[in-house]
Amino acid sequence: MLEDGPRDPFANDPDDPAAALGEPDDPEPLTAAERDEAVTDLADVEIFRSLLEPQGISGLVLDCPECGEQHYFDWDLLRGNLRQMIDDGQPQVHEPAYQPDPTDYVSWDYAQGYADGVIDTEEQR
Q1: CA 118: distance to chain centroid?
Q2: Which is deepest, 7, 17, 35, 43, by most CB within 10 Å?
Q3: Contact status, residue 48 vs residue 62, Cβ threshold 8 Å
Q4: In whole angstroms, what is the distance from residue 56 CA to residue 61 CA?
């Protein structure tokens, strides 16, 4: 587990309102294919960050399949979530970005296209 994750404000509190929910289920381990995909995604995020952060891009915007809304993730949060997924089989708990400026974020597809364009340009030199 990441040491810099948020601490449980109700840790060791006998009146913890979540106590009625019982103990959380242990996460299912990732399959080999899921782990490989997460490792590849982590490598991609590092490339995207190295290329886009100097351009003023703060991170990626991802469509959430559960709620149907867009979520904004800065580079460190993306990296942390993927590391946690690889290490523990589930992403860390996190707070969503507070009033992010959508112009500071790009989609995964945009970041991938940008990276591909930079690589293609370098190969043509």
Answers
A1: 23
A2: 35
A3: no
A4: 14
* Closest C-alpha among 34, 88, 89, 96 to residue 66: 96
Higher-confidence residue of 7 and 116: namely 116
CA–CA dist 106, 33 (Å, integer)? 26
Instruction: Report how far apart, in Å, the C-alpha atoms of 124 and of each of 39, 51, 113, 119, 120 are.
Output: 28, 18, 16, 9, 6
pLDDT tens figures, 62-113: 998 888 889 999 999 899 889 988 988 877 666 667 789 999 999 999 999 9
Q: What letter represents residue 33's amino acid?
A: A
Report the share of the chain in percent with pLDDT over 90. 49
Between CA 53 and CA 56 the distance in angstroms is 5
pLDDT above 90 (res 56): yes
